[in-house]
Recover the amino acids of this structure.
């Protein structure tokens, strides 16, 4: 974890949202959704602050940092010097964010937070290639609850989702555009994985000037995992 990669399970003290953002949060239909949305924005602003701090810059007041949503659904960053690429995730009582300078100064980030649940065996084929699915099926299933197979499956999903989000891919493509090689020590508290792209995702990787792809994770507990991906050198789509 770095200053630009943030995990939150509680709102930070002090002013956070602009009046417009607060009104948007208030319009959400439930307290659960309001809290999750706000927690994700808090994580995003802290990630941007971490990025600026690494550069030796002071961050502006948090309410002046705006995180609008692009037409693609990806978050944008307004109110800070220079261009920032940001990825957000929330759910299961927490939120995560990853901020980088796009292009040669950093690249494009992706982050995803997921929780393991018992998963039907056939569902693995919906997002895994045959070699990936066979690797997961080799793990023991749960006995009436979440087992190693479910935990490895959710780790694979989270890593692929983070890789998918990093390239700002359209939702219709699906996670089969992302290729993944999981290490044997996948149950370690933190670790790294090998991730790549195929098909239209590989074409997008080239269009954005993407270089090497780095992927990692952190287990928050026995079921929840935060995964992140960095596509070095990639620029934001225009």
């Amino acid at each position: 974890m770095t200053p630009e990669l943030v995990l939150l399970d509680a709102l930070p003290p002090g002013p956070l949202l602009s009046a417009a953002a607060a009104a948007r949060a208030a319009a959400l239909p439930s307290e659960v959704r309001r809290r999750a949305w706000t927690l994700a924005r808090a994580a995003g602003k802290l990630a941007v602050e971490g990025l600026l701090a690494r550069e030796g810059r002071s961050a502006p007041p948090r309410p002046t940092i705006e995180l609008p949503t692009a037409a693609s659904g990806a978050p944008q960053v307004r109110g800070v010097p220079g261009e920032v690429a940001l990825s957000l995730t929330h759910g299961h009582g927490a939120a995560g964010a990853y901020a980088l300078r796009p292009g040669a100064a950093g690249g494009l980030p992706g982050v995803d937070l997921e929780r393991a649940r018992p998963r039907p065996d056939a569902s693995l084929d919906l997002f895994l290639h045959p070699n990936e699915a066979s690797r997961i099926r080799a793990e023991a299933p749960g006995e009436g609850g979440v087992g190693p197979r479910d935990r490895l499956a959710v780790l694979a999903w989270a890593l692929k989702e983070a890789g998918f989000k990093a390239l700002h891919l359209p939702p219709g493509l699906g996670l089969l555009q992302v290729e993944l090689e999981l290490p044997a020590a996948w149950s370690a508290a933190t670790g790294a994985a090998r991730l790549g792209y195929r098909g239209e995702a590989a074409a997008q990787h080239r269009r954005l000037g993407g270089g090497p792809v780095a992927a990692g994770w952190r287990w928050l507990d026995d079921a929840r995992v935060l995964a992140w991906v960095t596509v070095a050198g990639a620029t934001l789509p225009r």
In short: The mean pLDDT is 95. The radius of gyration is 18 Å. The helical segments are 19-26, 31-54, 130-137, 148-166, 199-207.
